[in-house]
Amino acid sequence: MLLSAVCDFSFLCYLSFWCEVLEEVNITQKYLQTVGLTLEKCIVKLQGLKAFLADQCSEIAEKAICYATTKCKEMDISMERRGRVKLRKTMPGMKAKDAGLTLPEEMKRAMFECLDRFHHELEIRSQAIEKILSMFAVIQPNSLVGATEKDIHNYTPKLTEIFDEFSNEDIFREIERLQRHLEAAKLSVEEAKKWTALQFLEFIVKWDYCESMPNLSLCLRFFLTLCVSIASCERSFSK
Ligand SMILES: *[C@@H]1O[C@H](CO)[C@@H](O)[C@H](O)[C@H]1NC(C)=O
Ligand SMILES: *[C@@H]1O[C@H](CO)[C@@H](O)[C@H](O)[C@H]1NC(C)=O
User: Fold this and answer.
1) Which intervals hold domain HAT C-terminal dimerisation (predicted)?
2) Which of 26, 30, 32, 239 to probe ligand 1 with, by most ligand atoms within 8 A of CB?
3) Does residue 237 fall inside a structural domain?
4) Quick one: which of 70, 71, 102, 74 has its CA closest to 86?
């Protein structure tokens, strides 16, 4: 009884569908929890997931329909639309008036809509992360150790516009100071470029430079706090 109650065509479809999609989501969310992951890498990974959803859309849907069709035949489940089934299989956002469509067609459309929504949600999140990244461009590793004076003067206003406790001039002076300290501590530029924001903050704290770099250390703290809240948001989102 239970089997026939849960096993209808649309259920089997979604079973295969979510299995495919969630496998990729699982990999992505595992990766996003990597310790010390930079925001750039988060964005790239999310882009990868978006590309997967966009490229594999038809394939995933076809596969799900194939799977459900085969299983229905095997288990002798009717693929005809049943009165009650229609109600149950309606997903949020799916229009109920798909009158002229066969059940597989209707399912395909529903799956496309699911993927579309998911893609859209990911897009919103990636954009939010990109915005933070651009706001904090000046304290990204490449900028802290490698940016030219001109770059720094370009990046800083994005930050100071939002956080008016920082001034462009102070940030610039502190970055120069940090670079001198890194050099004095015999750290190669190449090595420091691979650091995360956390490692820069740790360096500053370890060498007791907080006092001579108050703006920079506060700024790194702001950034790291934001990163943590994004990470926990992504985590709860992907569950
Ligand atoms: C998610 O991925 C991990 C390995 O990265 C694996 O052990 C786990 O079984 C996967 N979970 C699902 C539901 O696929
Ligand atoms: C930024 O640096 C200036 C000069 O060192 C200092 O007076 C100011 O308090 C710092 N601002 C913050 C928010 O730490």
Assistant:
1) 196-239
2) 26
3) no
4) 102
